[in-house]
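Preliminary data (for renewal application), zinc ion complex.
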Amino acid sequence: MPLKYADLEHEVERRCPAGHPLVLRCRPVREVDGRLEPFPTLFWLACDDVHRQIARIEADGGVDLARAWLREDPARLAAFSAQHDAYVAERATLLSDDDRRRLESAGILDELRRRGIGGMLARDAVKCLHLHYAHHLARENLLGAWVDARYEVHGCPAP
Ligand SMILES: [Zn+2]
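Predicted structure:
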């Protein structure tokens, strides 16, 4: 069953002009059966309408196009890697001392520190545009900016 944002521990990072949540910033870990598990994305696209528009771009081959665009320029890839680093640093600030202790004792803290945007290990991997677009709306993300430059994504109108 897909997660709904109401199930996530989050803060509303940004709202649509219509007033509903557009981007959530999620707690980077979740309690699962008494254990602490990493939650893969810090930024969650919560607006159904923007979500559908990104899904159409993905269905239209956007993921492969974005990956090729990212990989064709080493300077671009280096800049994107720096955005992964900023994301990792922000995630670290969202973990409590207790979270860190529990992740360490479970042997997953070091791996979590290597996981970049969307929990990806490879800095040139692109599997989904939603999480990059959400990150772009909240911080800086080259792939999200690429989506905006190439496609028209419309926000919800104000009422
Ligand atoms: Zn909206």
